[in-house]
Amino acid sequence: MTLSAAYRFGWTGQLTGSLLFFALAPLFGMPPAIVLVLLSINLLYQFWLHATWIPRLGPLEWIFNTPSTHRVHHASNLEYLDANYGGILIVFDRMFGTYIPERRDLPCRYGLVTPVDTYNLLTIEFAQWRTLWGDLLAARSLSDALGYLLKPPGWRPNGGGETTEDLRQQATHPMVRKARNSGTG
After folding, report:
1. CA 60 to chain centre
2. What is the DSSP letter of 137?
3. What is the C-alpha to C-alpha distance for residues 47 and 67, in angstroms, rounded to an integer?
4. Cβ neighbours for 94, distance < 8 A, ≥ 6 positions apart
5. Do residues 146 and 136 touch, judged by C-beta distance below 8 A?
6. pTM of the entire structure?
7. Per-residue pLDDT tens listing for the chain (185 residues)
8. Is the separation of the CB atoms in 177 and 170 below 8 Å?
9. In angstroms, rounded to a whole number, what is the distance separating the alpha carbons of residues 176 and 185?
10. What residue segments make up the domains of the chain, in order of their start?
């Protein structure tokens, strides 16, 4: 990760809800100027988080999102998946069990769990959206559709998907995968 990574903006990044949140905030009484200030503070804070040369920062890591905790957020190592969501504060990750500290013995590996095998920008940007849309169209109930939107990545209504928790179980208990694939478990 580099500092320039902090200021990149994906084409579809605003579809994930942050734009909606900040657009609706004034409707609930937050002055638009405050919304812009908060957006600016968050963007400025993101700048230093993407520096790989900054080491762990001791007690600050209990409260704030630091470069170390943010490296874990971007890592594709199984041990680090689905962690450290906080933008500025990390306390909520600690409260809700999504905090994972960076380990000295396990360097962060950046990238996707399933690598993209193309250089086509449209495919790179929209492949995950296409998959999600296909899942939503195939959902047999509103409950299933909401599951695709709100449950962990890899979730399937029939239990046949592989979430991060499933992958971790398989890594620590290889027989779980064998039983699951053979239909005996």
Report:
1. 22
2. H
3. 10
4. 62
5. no
6. 0.77
7. 555 655 566 666 666 666 777 788 899 999 999 998 988 888 888 888 888 889 999 999 999 999 999 999 999 999 999 999 998 999 999 999 999 999 999 999 998 888 889 999 888 888 888 999 999 999 999 999 999 999 988 899 998 888 888 888 888 877 655 455 545 44
8. yes
9. 7
10. 3-96, 121-182
